[in-house]
């Protein structure tokens, strides 16, 4: 099958072996996939990844023992848990220490004709939700995860640092949930685009501090230093993006101001899919371009360019 | 008056100007003071401090408009707040943006014959509490602050990283509050001394992870990386010490494991003094040596040596 593989370099392969499903897993034919900042970090060395990239997708189940899934259009949670450890016993498969993670850890990803995931990870997509909306389920779930981790009062002021695809989606979700949210970044064009979507977007250089919650979506470790400048004493900084590189950080301001820094990763797919199906969140205006899988390398180049938000791959 | 002053170098001065009190402040004659890791960091450049060092003390009020304080032996909260801003209005003077901090920010400290603090910062010490116990009120308050910030279930396993004076006091407080706590460090002699005090002390190299709460008292920014290895997914790392230097940190593990990192600084003096007076916490065995103020430089040298815990200054 075709697959975008990272192995010291990024390549489209046409002879990549098809995934095998084990008991309780299904094979999904990928329809559309999205490129995320984590994919770019993986090509820079994050997680020492080797294999098929990609973890945001919508596809159709083509092989399964589960009759309710076979033939269905689905999105999928990316953490494949062992179902035997104490985390799994607590319903915390996303933190199972034995897990594989689609396109990130020990399991080939979604930028390919086919992928394998456990049946329990797959969520059928309502007919009314088109592929280019359903493909946003994973990042929208990651944004909702913030609200699942922390009860943020509705009168708290939220700042999203980063005008990239992740910052935009987090800001959209916070706005959809009626929070007073500002999204800030460096790119005038992107900020104008976000304003046109009804979001409050500000140049990062014009910010003044005192926010109750700052969500760092900059994708750079240095974003935390800026977040610590912007958050009020005893406020919360949510760390939403991962980077391959460390940064020289002095966390004394976090100690002195008693800031809570909250790492935040994947969320539940079901509620995110519901929010998309109900029209509460619609990130489709963030699609900057769509490439066929055969142009995967060009798609990655586009995803790395500052003016772009989300780049999609149309796979079949 | 005499004072230990840091101004590019550490010096004992005998002609240092006496502090002036403003309205609502008292003058305290310092009896005994303690050297803290923050004092050592200040001599390495932290906070760009210039002036009299020291913020852990017990003394006697020698000048005050407040008759309830005059002549009393007292300990003192170190944050002098403006009492006019919105933080002060919320009772959060410790986070007042206009505050001065004794021996740390804009207010000369306790390693001197006299110091000035607002009356409201001063807490009379019961007669039964000797100077060498009362002098621990500030660091014991800082340890209790953790429990004021976060409700930690009693069945959670707590790891204190760092076998220095701060780690020892935090471990003592956690043990006194009936937590299952392990204190870990690098120095066999210190670990043996902590074990002799009834604490569970372990060589840092022998630790295995999975702790619910890890308190970083290493005094180095690099301690956080180790804490992130030791905490379970969705656990909490408490950042309890400040360092002058930054460190190259990659916080991806905190994001992936959704760890909460909680900055923690000063606590309330009253409850800490109560714990000392009631005998619930007794850090006196941690006193490694006592120096007269005139030997202040030797005291700082001793405080910087690994085998020592707390070094006290006997001032008058």
Class inferred from helices and paired strands of chain A? alpha/beta
Shape of chain A: globular
Span between termini of chain A: 12 Å
Helices and strands of chain A, in order, run as EEEHEEEEHEEEEHHEHEHEEHEEHEHEHE
Largest sheet geometry of chain A: 7 strands, mixed
What is the beta-strand fraction of chain A?
25-35%
The two chains with the largest interface, and their residue counts, are: A-B, 36 and 36 residues
Overall tally of structural domains of chain A: 2
Please state the oligomeric state of the protein chains shown: homodimer
Alpha carbon gyration radius of chain A = 19 Å
- What percentage of residues of chain A falls in helices of 4 or more residues? 10-25%
The parts of chain A where pLDDT drops under 50 for at least 5 residues are none
What this model shows, in words?
Chain A is α/β, with parallel strands linked by helices. Chain A has 2 domains: 3-136 and 283-314, Medium-chain alcohol dehydrogenases, catalytic domain (Quinone Oxidoreductase, Chain A, domain 1); 142-263, NAD(P)-binding Rossmann-like Domain (Rossmann fold, 3-Layer(aba) Sandwich). Helix content of chain A is 25%, strand content 30%. Chain A has 10 helices and 20 strands. Chain A has helices at residues 37-42, 86-89, 131-134, 137-149, 165-176, 188-196, 223-230, 252-256, 269-277, 296-303; strands at 3-6, 10-13, 25-35, 51-52, 56-63, 73-76, 79-80, 100-102, 106-107, 114-118, 122-124, 157-161, 180-185, 200-203, 211-216, 231-239, 247-249, 260-263, 287-292, 310-314. In chain A, the strands form 4 sheets. In chain A, strands 3, 5, 6, 10, 11, 19 and 20 form a 7-stranded mixed sheet that branches. The first copy, chain A, has a 6-stranded parallel sheet with strand order 14-13-12-15-16-18, with helices on both faces. A 3-stranded antiparallel sheet of chain A has the order 2-1-4, with no helix packed on it. In chain A, helix 4 crosses helix 5 and helix 4 (137-149) crosses helix 9 (269-277). Chain A is globular. The A-B interface holds A 46, 87, 92, 95, 97, 149, 221, 224, 233-234, 239-252, 254-265 and B 46, 87, 92, 95, 97, 149, 221, 224, 233-234, 239-252, 254-265.
